[in-house]
Amino acid sequence: MKPAFQQLTIDQTKESFLCFWVRSKKFGFHWHYHPEFEITYVVHGNGTRLVGDSSHDFENHDLIFVGSNLPHTWISHDDFGRDGQEMEVIVLQFSGQIIESRAKEIIELSSIGRLLEASGRGLNFPMEVRKKAGRMLMTMTDEKGLKRYNLLLEVLDLLGSAAFAKLSSEYYAPNYSQTNETRIG
């Protein structure tokens, strides 16, 4: 199945990146990609996540870094929500333009540059890193201005300085050509 292009709307006059809560009874299959980088932190929920050519179960404290144009989706397990609980997720989305070039030029941002480079395959992190980054993301949803941007840098530095596992295989290369989309879809 071909992934759908998702056009994100970031109002550059109000903010340079998005960090927001998503609450839903269930997550259905929504296979998509976008040019923005994305961090998804599952506060509460379980199911299966697909990132590139990888498929893994997820549960509370799952945190994934998805690179630019990498197809992904999270799908709730069938039995989730029968007790009235909701999926609770924090999503951080940002354009490479707000950090990518600086991460290559400024030595103090080299861990972030390393993170952005590796993110094209999707990244997973150790539990203690996920929980710490998750707390920072929760704080970020309430912050504004420079405090919010500094938290973005702190989260990216934390993730870039940590050990991480790549999710998609090294051979995975999504092809979005019209020919392939017609044939696969």
- Biggest sheet, open or closed, and with what strands and sense? 6 strands, antiparallel
Instruction: State the end-to-end CA separation.
Output: 5 Å
In quaternary terms, these chains amount to single chain
Number of strand segments: 11
Beta-strand residue percentage: 25-35%
**Discrete helix count:** 5
- Given helix and strand content, the structural type is alpha+beta
| Portion of residues within helices | 25-40%
Q: Record the strand order, biggest sheet.
A: 2-9-4-7-10-11
Low-confidence stretches: 178-185
Give, in order, the helices and strands: EEEEEEEEEHHEHHEH
What's the Cα radius of gyration? 16 Å
Question: Would you kindly provide a written description of the structure presented here, covering whatever features stand out?
Answer:
With 185 residues, the chain is α+β, with helices and mostly antiparallel strands. The protein contains five helices and eleven strands. The chain has helices at 100-105, 110-118, 127-140, 145-161, 178-184; strands at residues 4-5, 17-24, 32-33, 37-44, 47-51, 54-58, 63-66, 72-76, 87-94, 123-124, 165-166. Strands 2-9-4-7-10-11 form a six-stranded antiparallel beta sheet, with helices on one face. The protein is globular, with a radius of gyration of 16 Å. It starts with a strand and ends with a helix.
